[in-house]
Amino acid sequence: HAADARRTDLMTITRHVLNEQPKHPESKGDFTILLSHIVLGCKFVCSAVNKVLLFLFPSTIGSPIAISTSIPPSLFSQAGLAKLIGLAGETNRRPFALLSLNQGEEQKKLDVLSNEVFVKALISSGRTCVLVSEEDEEATFVDPSLRGKYCVVFDPLDGSSNIDCGVSIGTIFGIYMVKDKDNVSLDDVLQPGKHMVAAGYCMYGSSCTLVLSTGNGVNGFTLDPSLGEFILTHPDIKIPKRGKLYSVNEGNAKNWDTPTAKFVEKCKFPKDGSSPKSLRYIGSMVADVHRTLLYGGIFLYPADKKSPNGKLRVLYEVFPMSFLMEQAGGQAFTGEQRALDLVPTKIHQRSPVFLGSYDDVDEIIALYAAEE
Ligand code: AHG
Ligand code: MN
Ligand code: MN
Ligand code: MN
Q1: H or E stretch including 286?
Q2: Which helix (H) or strand (E) holds 236?
Q3: Which among 113, 157, 161, 218 has most CB atoms closer than 10 A?
Q4: Is the CB of 284 under 6 A from ligand 1?
């Protein structure tokens, strides 16, 4: 029966994407190859995050003795990967910063390391031409000899304030198709989110979950560590039409505009007889959006007087998550327009965002409309 079939007939992410290929007759497997390099980056970060966690839980955090005795020396000497990512430095007592391979070199923060891994994996795929990463001020133009037709915008490690306490973090990515491979410019990535051909995120949580849309709905894959493969575990994700949760940094409430303030007030003191919503806020966009996608509700990072454009970045935070939300039957709004219609003019541009269950986002749209 079905469960048995799933155990022996594994729907890996590669197989899933290959199955979708007939829907794109022009495609020649390039997307599959690109995705496998993104997946490699995700597996690397997942592994690095888990090794950081290993350092986190010795009984006396910070004590050199506790750390050096509780991690078996074999882990350092055997684990090629630990060496590769620089965990093997025995003089490094800081549990959360990774020591790079060469002694004396600067310690690499996990977000910088993740960025390097993604940039190198994406370039070596031979399928990319422009890369925009949160960690790099400038866009990367791939050498013509390695150039392919895809542009990738990404946040290699999202939720960095949560790294040191072991709370879920993630990677976010969006993919555009270049117009003319021999004539590549920033305009290829300064495109509205609705032009993305795919978007997704990987969450490094209690399990490692990759959520992807290629424009045909949303699917979730969970990393089976024993296989090293992402297996389809959440087929055709649809967000509930209305949710019972809201997710926002209320510490900024003092500076909110009226529609946002009214919306949150309504979540807590509904006047239509409905129950108040519960508040959930992790502070990692990937984790907050993942929960919103599965349970329903709304996630907001609004504008405020101090940050008139909010905090989140259009290209590699707002767009990919908005793309996924729409593909799952939800909505994403900037306070002014459908988020995916926004045309960015700068690669690191920010925008307010309200995304989640269709009916919940409708409410905030109505409040902004009433303001005009
Ligand atoms: P990053 O770690 O990539 O810089 O992004 C952090 C973002 C996002 O993950 C999260 O939704 C938001 O910051 C939280 O911001 P506040 O701490 O202001 O609530
Ligand atoms: Mn981020
Ligand atoms: Mn980041
Ligand atoms: Mn950052």
Answers
A1: helix 285-295
A2: none
A3: 157
A4: yes
Element (H, E) at 125: none
**Strand intervals (E) in the chain:** 128-133, 140-141, 147-158, 169-177, 198-204, 208-213, 219-224, 229-234, 245-247, 278-279, 298-301, 331-333, 353-356
Residues 86-113 have a mean pLDDT of 49
Residue tagged 């990987």 (tokens): 202
Predicted confidence (pLDDT) per residue in 161-196, tens digit = 888 788 999 999 999 999 998 899 999 999 999 999
Burial class (CB within 10 angstroms; exposed 0-12, middle 13-18, buried 19+) of 334: buried
Ligand 1 binding pocket includes 249 (Cβ within 6 Å)? yes
Distance 135 CA to ligand 4 centre (A): 7
ipTM: 0.98
Q: SS3 for 180?
A: coil
Q: Which two tokens stand for residue 102?
A: 């060469």
What does the DSSP 8-state code read for residue 186?
A: G
Phi-psi sector, 2: left (phi>0), alpha (psi -120 to 50), beta: alpha
Query: Can you say how many angstroms the Cα of residue 90 is from the centroid of all Cα atoms in its chain?
Result: 32
**Encoded tokens for 20:** 């979708």
**Cα gap 276→270, rounded to integer Å:** 6
Average of per-residue pLDDT values in the chain: 87
DSSP run (H or E) holding 264: helix 258-268
* pLDDT tens string 44-93: 999 988 875 444 444 333 433 333 334 444 443 333 344 444 444 444 33
| DSSP letter, residue 347 | T
Q: Is 135 in the pocket of ligand 1 (CB under 6 A)?
A: no
Chain Cα centroid distance, residue 263: 26
Atom of ligand 1 minimally distant from the CA of 286: 9
Q: Whose C-alpha lies nearest to ligand 1, atom 15? A: 283
Q: How many C-beta neighbours within 10 Å does residue 30 have?
A: 17
- Tell me the C-alpha distance between 129 and 149, whole Å: 6
Q: Which residue pairs, CB below 8 angstroms and at least 24 apart, start in 173-177?
A: 173/38, 173/199, 173/200, 173/201, 173/316, 173/320, 174/198, 174/199, 174/315, 174/316, 174/319, 174/320, 174/323, 175/31, 175/34, 175/150, 175/151, 175/199, 176/150, 176/151, 176/152, 177/149, 177/150, 177/151
Contact 350, 312 (CB under 8 A): yes
